């Protein structure tokens, strides 16, 4: 386990790198929706961390949807007809590991 001083220096380095990193979601857009939801924080680093977390969340959803689309396209014809039923989404969710 690392020492407390080393952990503090890693945290300081991480927070400094967040200021330099520009997430895909612009700061103005993130600030607008954060203010609209009642979140008020003057620290840019906190807003950037929320933007980065949102970016990761959205990219995981898009990636999972893409994987599901590829899975549906490569399924045999009989399975394609079955997956067009109401249960296709549940099957895809289970196959992608959203539900264990």
TrEMBL record:
UniProt GO cellular component terms: SAGA complex; transcription factor TFIID complex
Subcellular location: Nucleus
Recorded GO MF terms: promoter-specific chromatin binding; RNA polymerase II general transcription initiation factor activity
UniProt keyword terms in alphabetical order: Nucleus, Transcription, Transcription regulation
GO BP field: transcription initiation at RNA polymerase II promoter
Alphabetized InterPro entries for the sequence: TAF10 (IPR003923)
Domain of life: Eukaryota
One Pfam family named in its UniProt record: TAF10
Family: Belongs to the TAF10 family.
Official protein name in the record: Transcription initiation factor TFIID subunit 10
């Amino acid at each position: 386990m690392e020492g407390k001083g080393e952990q503090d220096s890693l945290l300081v380095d991480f927070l400094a790198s967040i200021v330099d990193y520009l997430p895909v979601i612009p700061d103005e857009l993130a600030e607008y929706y954060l203010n609209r939801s009642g979140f008020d924080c003057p620290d840019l680093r906190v807003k950037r961390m929320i933007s980065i977390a949102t970016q990761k969340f959205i990219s995981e959803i898009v990636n999972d949807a893409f994987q599901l689309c590829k899975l549906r396209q490569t399924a045999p014809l009989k399975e394609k007809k079955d997956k067009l039923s109401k249960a296709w989404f549940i099957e895809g969710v289970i196959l992608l590991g959203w539900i264990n």
